[in-house]
Amino acid sequence: MVINVCIGSACHLKGSYDIIKIFEKLIEENKLSEKLSVKASFCLGNCVGAVSVKFDDKVYSVQPDTANEFFESVVREKVC
Ligand code: FES
After folding, report:
1. What is the pLDDT of residues 1-19, one digit of tens each?
2. Residues of the chain with pLDDT > 90: what percent?
3. Can you give the residue ranges of every domain in the chain?
4. CA-CA distance, 18 to 64, in Å (whole number)?
5. Which of 35, 51, 70, 79 gives the lowest tally of CB atoms within 10 Å of its CB?
6. CA nearest 62: which of 21, 11, 1, 13?
7. What is the reported pTM?
8. Which CATH topology does 2-62 take?
9. 22: left (phi over 0), alpha (psi -120 to 50) or beta
10. pLDDT above 90 for 48
11. 74 CA to centre of ligand 1 in angstroms
């Protein structure tokens, strides 16, 4: 599965790269790299909800300080 993190300008300003780093770290810590990867993506059409993260065909609004929680509650459940 892939977590797509928007790096369009609105999302970039709100911390896309921090979120990518947080997800990469969590994937490594949880040894999920065979099942899960993070990719940067262009505008996901949800700029008001920046930072936009697309996972399993849904677009979510994630902030650097909610990225951990998002990973635990949304991503982990689907991947594990
Ligand atoms: S810039 Fe991220 S959704 Fe548009």
Report:
1. 999 999 999 999 999 999 9
2. 98
3. 2-62
4. 6
5. 35
6. 11
7. 0.96
8. Glutaredoxin (3.40.30)
9. alpha
10. yes
11. 20
